[in-house]
Amino acid sequence: MEGIAFNFALSSLKVISFVLDVITFPIYFILDNPLEAKRKAKEVRATIIDRGPNYITFRGKQQPTEFHIELLENGIDTMSKMLDYCSKKRKNNKCLGTREVLAEEDELQPNGKVYKKFVLGDYKWQSYEEVNTLATHFGRGLRELGNEPGKNVVIFSETRAEWMIAAHGLFKQSIPLVTIYATLGDEAIAHGINETEVSTVITSFELLPKFKQILSLTPQVKTIIYIEDQLKKLDDTNGFKNGVTIIKYKDVLEKGRNSNIGEVAPTKDDVAIIMYTSGSTGIPKGVMLQHKNLIATFKAFCDLTRMQDGDIMMGYLPLAHVFELLVESVCMCMGVPVGYSGPLTLIDSASKIKKGSKGDATVLRPTFMTAVPERIRIMQIDYENSLVFFY
């Protein structure tokens, strides 16, 4: 008897579901227009404009946006011109944001273990004018340390505001930026540094211990500039190789502030970045990208992205990859502030967030962020805490 009742109920639900499908299908068809979506999926989006024995060049068919045309009319063909133009246009607007770390405290876990957790404040913002000025000072400071235009410098650091400022400081002095993932192994990192014949490396306080081990593999490195931690200080430099100068990021800014060295503006054909791959298929490879390559992609992103007042971006993926660097640059240029985060503080349940405190996403409330499949998968697993991205 129970089996008959169950089958009847199941059949009834199937009938109701079918009726609802029939009723709602016309509404779905009108609103979603699947035929139009199918047509757009088959649409030709790019045409071949040049072809050679070893290359092929495509150009998108979409019409340039007003902002794209504005960049062309103002001759923006290098990354240094881009920042100068945007800082003049948006001067006092919020540009780059970093969350304040107030303290690091012990937190007892249910299993009896004690972990260090952050007590975090709000985001502190730097204006466009401040960012451009800091980039100018940093570039001059590097020159004061003996770095000449055309001589490569490595940034080996996590994604953060200082990374972006340092990069633009290099651009302003025509110093090619070598980007290396902070997650690579020692030999892969040393390979990138040695291959590009780098003598100056920009890193962070957190990565200094790792870099100490790499110095024995990089004989040409003579200067390490480290971005300071908000709470901890570097007590001593014991264990670092003799002959290597270790200097604070802020001290480089101070040198640049007091310097009379002028800007050495790059041309569009100058190398802007030598970006090293993740090395997933072997030894990391350096990809040379000129300013004109970056600006061309920059303009394409502008054409494909719709932004509006009130938007805000979360800087999260590695800036060592040109994708994150250019997306953040597009946001900056279009007036969208960029607030920085990392996996340890991203959401309320992140490993360094103290119980009862808020993760970066909850505080920042971003409307833009870049993502990769693995990040999306994590957000699906931690669905409840990831809802903050979809308010």
From TrEMBL:
Top-level EC class: ligase
GO CC terms in record: endoplasmic reticulum; lipid droplet; plasma membrane
EC code: 6.2.1.3
Superkingdom of this protein's organism: Eukaryota
SUPFAM superfamilies with a match to the protein in the record: Acetyl-CoA synthetase-like (SSF56801)
Key word Lipid metabolism present: yes
Residue ranges occupied by any AMP-dependent synthetase/ligase domain in the UniProt entry: 118-377
Catalytic activity: a long-chain fatty acid + ATP + CoA = a long-chain fatty acyl-CoA + AMP + diphosphate
Pfam families associated with the record: AMP-binding (PF00501)
One GO molecular-function entry: ATP binding
Keyword Ion transport: no
GO biological process: long-chain fatty-acyl-CoA metabolic process; neuron differentiation
UniProt keywords, alphabetically: ATP-binding, Fatty acid metabolism, Ligase, Lipid metabolism, Nucleotide-binding
PANTHER family the record matches: ACYL-COA SYNTHETASE LONG-CHAIN, ISOFORM J (PTHR43272:SF83), LONG-CHAIN-FATTY-ACID--COA LIGASE (PTHR43272)
Family: Belongs to the ATP-dependent AMP-binding enzyme family.
Protein name: long-chain-fatty-acid--CoA ligase
